Amino acid sequence: MAVLVGAAVAPACAQDVTRGQAAFEDRCTMCHAPTGGQGPKLAGVVGRKAGVLAGFAYSAALKA
Predict the structure, then answer these.
(1) Which helix (H) or strand (E) holds 21?
(2) Taking the CB of residue 42, how many other CB atoms lie within 10 A of it?
């Protein structure tokens, strides 16, 4: 994982990754677990158009 710093790319700090994982587990996984939950699954999210999974009520803005 890398973080943009100006025009250069610097490696992400391990602390940032740990904090991000903790925040995701605390705030997101109850609905957006990688394998399913109340919200859309996150498995396969990379490269998938937003707002296209069947069975969820997406806002017009998210669909666009």
Answers:
(1) helix 14-27
(2) 17
